[in-house]
Amino acid sequence: MQSRKEKSIPRTGNNVKNEKGNAGELQQQAGGSHPVITTQQGLAISDNQNSLRSTPHGPTLLEDFVLREKITHFDHERIPERVVHARGTGAHGFFELTKSLSKYTTAKILTEKNVQTPVFCRFSTVAGGSGSIDTPRDVRGFAVKLYTQEGNWDLVGNNIPVFFIQDAMKFPDLVHAVKMEPDRGFPQAATAHDTFWDFISLMPESMHMIMWAMSDRAIPRSLRMIEGFGIHSFRLVNKEGVSTFVKFHWRPKIGLQSTIWDEAVKIAGADPDFHRRDFFEAIQNGDFPEWELGVQLFTEEEAATFPFDHLDSTKLIPEELVPLQIIGRMVLNRWPDSFFAETEQVAFCPANIVPGIDFSEDPLLQGRLFSYLDTQLIRLGGPNFTQIPINAPKCPFHNLQRDGHMQTQIYKGRTAYEPQSLEEDKPRASQKTGFHSASVHAEGVKSRIRADSFADHYSQARMFYRSQSEIEQAHLASALVFELSKVETEHVRLAVVSQLRTIDESLAKRVGDGLGLKSLPDAIAPAVPVQDLDLSPALRIIDRMKDTLDGRTIGILIADGSNAESIEGIKTAVEQAGAMVKLVAQKRGVTLDNGTYVTADGQLAGTPSIVFDGVVSILPMDEAEKLIFEAAAVDWFRDAFGHLKAIAACKGTHKILTAAGITPDAGIVAPEDIQSFIALAKTRQWEREPKVRTLA
Ligand code: HDD
């Protein structure tokens, strides 16, 4: 007789089938057309709930190969995360050329118009681990794999057009400084700590990048609203063998937008997957993220006239100096089926180029050409990672490389060497279609040296800061104050301010004031005089925001008895303007004034206004009065106001606004005036900012 405990063991349908036997029967009894679960050897499994035990209370038997296989595989499910850019998300799509560059290159991807080339694009943060938040203040990786007819071309860039260092020799130091401190294991995904700023304060070449990393670019609103830059100069090589330098830029179709720092911090708690979710939802809704591809083309002679060295990755080429030509577009329209198989296993490498494109001598790029393949060998476990479907070329490929861990190809024949005379059909090199390195003249003495033309570390940093709008300058200065306030070591804080003085005296003063310094430390003496370069307004974000609601999300707060007609009218108008609408209520189930029962998309306490670009409220008076005593409701409006969002507030809501200490301004309208609300929600209410926070 069974004990009480034995009887309580859950019995599933599978257990019954277990006794009866075969796989076909198993499928039928479960009532579906699903396949039978098997071991990795293809053996049908009869019971996926219980291990094999000697007696109902006895030990589990070593004989249980089904259990052992399942657990062994599980134990090995993880691979090393990327040493940088571990947190990321990606999607499939296509690239289409709209303007041929046949004058400059033989690369088909840049000469054959209107051909859709498949791409996989992965966005990432840099410093955090794979489970870290989406909204730290950080650079965003923008890596695109183009599966061209002539091999995979990887454009492995960032959302910022310059980099921290000039030579790959410094990359491990930079990364060790920014990652969590090794003795304590924190902070995660943050630059606001001593080791990062210590390193930076001693690296004048980082100053330009620091201006960008402290600007609003490092806190994007959405991955759909970031630019992408190939950063280095590359070469395009035409059929005469003549090469032209090129810089690649991705431009988001819906324009750029950033969060506000206080908002980014709160989003991190409310929705750590904020960017990933936004990207996923956009693709699921058919609102496909799209970018234009632009190029800056220039000759060696033109480069010689620039007031900086274009081979130095800490420098950008202002668009005012070399205009951007738009040559194509990329659309991301398919979410991966498997995050692990695709987004996690995708292996980018700047060395993956195609005939007609070549590298420049940028020493940072030169080091990258080594690092990526090397890192994939450990991350993906061996030299055959190129056979993983996401990494394999989509054009024919043949080579004489053989064997190795996880070889999946079954090569035929006797020969795997060249030259050989035994097999006619084995691959050989082709002068005609093969890759030729650009002919580059080089002479000099081998040495460990930095070119003199790389010595100007401050002029472009100054240009960037001075080119920003007043609001953006205030954000940048405040970001520096925030970051340095987290630095415990005084001499590090002072050393950074010394650097800032050389960039721009007023910036140093703002930061010094924000830190409460009694006096400013001496400025750093630059190695070469700092130039006052022409300003580049093209580097701003706020002035260049597109006049569109595309890609935005509007939250409507409702309650039992809310007016169904108003909600429907607002939803339609906002969706027509290109935004997504989400209903928020204190309870997910809500009965509207016409008796309709609706399910809200979010519950108030779990759906703060920080996840929206503008908020609307349609509340009956009695429900609004109840919400005055609900912190989540009061915060909903206080945050929306504080984050400079447009608010469409019904009469009852004004009582909640009063409870939140909000004095209505031009950014608050009535829900009936929905077109004004839409116009306001396309941007932030910048004039409100000085009233809600003190900026440096
Ligand atoms: Fe890097 C990953 C971008 C300099 C070494 N890098 C990585 C990724 C991006 C960049 C977007 C993530 C790719 C993905 O989604 O899988 N890296 C850059 C840019 C740089 C740069 C724009 C400067 C212009 N990187 C750089 C240097 C080195 C590396 C100088 C080493 C010498 N980067 C790596 C790496 C990673 C990587 C260790 C980590 C994971 C990976 O490669 O696949 O090899």
TrEMBL record:
Which residues are the active-site ones? H85, N158
Region Disordered, as annotated, extends over 1-31, 417-437
Domain Catalase core stretches: 38-426
Q: What class of enzyme is it?
A: oxidoreductase
Task: Write down the EC number.
Answer: 1.11.1.6
Write out the transmembrane intervals: none
Q: Name one GO biological process term.
A: response to oxidative stress
Describe the reaction catalysed, as an equation.
2 H2O2 = O2 + 2 H2O
Named cofactor requirement(s): heme
UniProt GO MF annotations = catalase activity; heme binding; metal ion binding
Q: Does the keyword Cytoplasm feature in the UniProt annotation?
A: no
Which InterPro entries did the record assign? Catalase, Catalase_AS, Catalase_clade2, Catalase_clade2_helical, Catalase_core, Catalase_haem_BS, Catalase_immune_responsive, Catalase_large_C
Task: Summarize where heme binds, as residue positions.
Answer: R82, R122, F171, R368, Y372, R379
Q: Gene Ontology terms, cellular component aspect?
A: cytosol
Keyword set includes Oxidoreductase: yes
Keywords assigned: Heme, Hydrogen peroxide, Iron, Metal-binding, Oxidoreductase, Peroxidase
Family indicated by similarity: Belongs to the catalase family. HPII subfamily.
UniProt cross-references to PANTHER family, sorted A to Z: CATALASE, CATALASE-B
State its role: Decomposes hydrogen peroxide into water and oxygen; serves to protect cells from the toxic effects of hydrogen peroxide.
Q: Give the protein's recorded name.
A: Catalase
What species does this protein belong to?
Answer: Advenella kashmirensis W13003
Lineage, broadest ranks: Bacteria, Pseudomonadati, Pseudomonadota, Betaproteobacteria, Burkholderiales
